[in-house]
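Thanks for the sequence, V.! I ran DUF951 domain-containing protein right away. Repeating your input here for the record:
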Amino acid sequence: MDYQLNTIVEMKKPHACGNNSWKVVRMGADIKIECNSCHRIVMMTRHDFEKHLNKVIKD
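Predicted structure:
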């Protein structure tokens, strides 16, 4: 899937707040994503991110 910085993505599992859309805020070996509803930040490896990524919503 093609994603960049500030891309809105949908993950397979929703966040605890119930939202399912995230914004990519940092890229590298690790990916940092921010929940669009409660603005919590989650950091995961690129491999885990690509495994849990469902679709790219908006660039």
